[in-house]
Known about the structure:
Blueprint: E1 3-4, E2 13-14, H1 16-43, H2 47-68, H3 80-100, H4 104-123
Helix pairs in contact: 1-2, 1-3, 1-4, 2-3, 3-4
Amino acid sequence: MPTAGPGADPGRVWTPLTVVNAGVAFALELGLLAALCYWGARTGGSTLVKIVLAVGAPALAATVWGLFLAAGGPTFPLPTAARIVIKLLVLGTAPLALAATGHRALAAVFAGLVVLTVAVEYTTG
Length: 125
């Protein structure tokens, strides 16, 4: 049963599918930050470089997300097509980071879920 609910888009219609999709999308956003942190800690040569990458990569992703994709209202609203592209690019760094650290199967699953959640988000109510 569709219902209107609070949030960044008060006109959005929430169905069981969109609620589950929003939950999975949020988990992917958290996974993005974790994957980038893990990648940074595994990639750097020295301890200082590892720390900078482990903190800097997720911070950069979170900054881009906050500026252009934040659920509470982005600082710089974009047309839908641009939001989709940026969302895929930002979330797409997680599978790349996972693959670079040897977790190829997890990277493939993550990438598939990213494509699926973005498709559901922009093709349903």
